[in-house]
Recover the amino acids of this structure.
């Protein structure tokens, strides 16, 4: 029974420990209190004998006045009662605790009641001489100083983990090395268990992704498949069909692709990769529309692609892929104006295309693809200067474009596409030289172009793109020969070019570019 607030020695103990602390350390006390009451003694130690009796499974309950006295009628009475019912005293030592008369009184009372029970000093801040309450260091009735079990939470000493295990050892009476060893073994078993659980959870998640969320994943998969198939048809497949001159096959595919994106509820919700893919598809569709003579349809697609790629570039201006995509949009808008002889409208787009290509080269200096893009952009500005007979608008770019493409050729030796690009640059340089009245020099460039194209045709004689190049080389050369007075040779070569374009039109009657060239070939020499 309680006598003057003290429980007699024969009374049953209620608490594993009494946590004494200054309220300046209340936050730390709360965390330690929660950890101790949640801590489970390693199973292999539970029930083994120790100086404190059989080792318990849990260190509960631990008395902490703020938690335990919420409804107490007398704080002093309850503290004295709790101290008398505690198996050990745990003191949080700090300069604030040393200055607290309540912490000192609790230590003194516990030691007077139970001089043989453990007192554990947990140093949370400061030095021991400045942090230990005076009662911890005073001798007992026999003049003996009982040095408390010390756990030092400071980082330069035990640190939090070891300090907590020292407290566990002090409360249970188990040797510290056993606690550390068993705790480490348990942690290892826990890691193994968590690893196995993670594997099982991963497998479960995989099954859940397949079964539980199948509808959502299926929708995404179908969208990716649809977009991937559309992109294949309008890029890789389109290039192959160009090689055999059958662009008419893609008209239905273009319509289906446009319908697919028209069915999307909100394009702004699509991820950036899907928007980028949609822009590339619009470029390909616009190119095909333009080749069939549908300028309005092509322009609508190029403008929409330009809007999308511009927004993507604004979101990440340093992403080379986005710079490249917007460069294509600028090119195609310029090309539509160029082919309609709207040079004043085309030139700003071609210059923007060139500036973006330069940025690509700056971002990836050793990337041949981006250097090649710069060659194309320089060539486009060259074409305005040549076709519009406006030297001030870019004839000087013709030589730069050839130099750039030859540099790409050195980086990609033997690449057929690059060889074709170099041949094309020789052709435009020849046209630039004609504008300047240098017909003999222009003829030399045409011969260089012809030699490259003949080599390509030897490797791939049925390639429609090479056949078109060969047709244009012969037509342009015939014009030069006629201007130089070699009229018979010019007439023969022009007739051969007309035969070439007739065969190309027969393979793909829908190709508007070839129809335009056929009409030019019917005109007399000038």
């Amino acid at each position: 029974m309680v006598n003057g607030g003290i429980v007699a020695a024969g009374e049953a103990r209620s608490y594993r420990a009494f946590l004494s602390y200054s309220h300046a350390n209340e936050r730390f006390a709360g965390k330690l209190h929660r950890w101790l009451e949640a801590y489970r003694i390693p199973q292999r130690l539970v029930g083994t004998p120790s100086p404190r009796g059989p080792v318990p499974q849990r260190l509960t309950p631990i008395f902490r006045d703020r938690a335990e006295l919420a409804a107490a009628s007398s704080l002093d009475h309850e503290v004295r009662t709790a101290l008398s019912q505690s198996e050990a005293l745990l003191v949080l030592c700090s300069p604030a605790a040393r200055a607290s008369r309540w912490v000192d009184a609790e230590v003194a009372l516990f030691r007077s009641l139970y001089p043989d029970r453990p007192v554990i000093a947990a140093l949370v801040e400061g030095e021991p001489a400045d942090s230990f309450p005076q009662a911890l260091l005073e001798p007992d009735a026999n003049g003996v100083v009982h040095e408390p079990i010390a756990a030092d939470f400071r980082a330069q000493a035990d640190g939090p983990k070891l300090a907590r295990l020292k407290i566990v050892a002090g409360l249970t009476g188990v040797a510290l090395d056993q606690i550390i060893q068993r705790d480490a073994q348990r942690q290892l078993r826990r890691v193994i268990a968590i690893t196995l659980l993670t594997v099982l959870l991963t497998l479960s998640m995989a099954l859940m992704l397949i079964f539980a969320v199948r509808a959502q994943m299926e929708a995404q998969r179908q969208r990716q498949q649809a977009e991937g198939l559309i992109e294949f048809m309008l890029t890789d497949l389109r290039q192959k069909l160009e090689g055999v001159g059958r662009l008419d096959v893609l008209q239905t595919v273009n319509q289906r692709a446009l319908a697919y994106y028209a069915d999307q509820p909100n394009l702004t919700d699509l991820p950036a990769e899907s928007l980028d893919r949609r822009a590339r598809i619009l470029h390909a569709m616009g190119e095909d529309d333009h080749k069939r003579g549908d300028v309005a349809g092509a322009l609508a697609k190029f403008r929409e692609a330009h809007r999308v790629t511009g927004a993507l570039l604004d979101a990440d201006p340093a992403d080379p892929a986005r710079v490249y995509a917007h460069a294509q949009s600028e090119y195609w808008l310029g090309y539509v104006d160029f082919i309609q002889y709207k040079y004043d409208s085309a030139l700003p787009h071609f210059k923007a295309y060139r500036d973006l290509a330069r940025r690509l080269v700056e971002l990836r200096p050793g990337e041949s693809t981006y250097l090649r893009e710069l060659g194309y952009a320089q060539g486009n500005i060259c074409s305005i200067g040549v076709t519009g007979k406006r030297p001030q608008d870019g004839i000087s770019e013709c030589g730069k474009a050839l130099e750039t493409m030859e540099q790409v050729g050195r980086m990609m030796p033997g690449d057929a596409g690059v060889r074709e690009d170099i041949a094309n640059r020789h052709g435009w340089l020849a046209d630039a030289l004609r504008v300047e009245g240098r017909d003999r020099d222009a003829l030399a460039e045409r011969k260089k172009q012809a030699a490259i194209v003949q080599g390509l045709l030897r490797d791939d004689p049925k390639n429609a793109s090479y056949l078109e190049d060969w047709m244009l080389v012969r037509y342009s050369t015939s014009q030069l020969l006629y201007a130089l007075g070699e009229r018979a040779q010019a007439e023969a070569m022009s007739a051969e070019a007309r035969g070439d374009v007739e065969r190309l039109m027969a393979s793909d009657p829908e190709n508007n570019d070839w129809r335009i060239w056929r009409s030019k070939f019917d005109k007399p020499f000038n």
